[in-house]
TrEMBL record:
Name the record gives this protein: Metallopeptidase family protein
Pfam families in the record: Zincin_1
Family annotation (SUPFAM superfamilies): Metalloproteases ('zincins'), catalytic domain
Highest taxon above the source species: Bacteria
Amino acid sequence: MSERAFENLVGDALDLLPEELMHAMSNVVILVRPHNDDDPTILGLYSGVALTERTTEYSGFLPDTIEIYREPLLAMCDSIPQLRREVAVTVLHEVGHHFGISDEWLHANGWG
């Protein structure tokens, strides 16, 4: 799959978010990377200060990042429908972290 087609899958996953959540996202950028250098097996990574942890002193920070890793997602999927589902789960999982939702809750509710 081309990089552009994969990026479109990430965009499709973001389209699944309710409009209210999209508008509530703040100071975050979503990036597609080949893989994580420290752990090439992970599918995505949120780095930053979750919305629930931000205080009135939160200003002047660089944007949080949500990184989606193309190579491990492609490697784990046998079909386009499976890839579409795994990309959606990964994107929504990392967006959940931006909103302060824990790994435990995400996994328990099918977003892990």
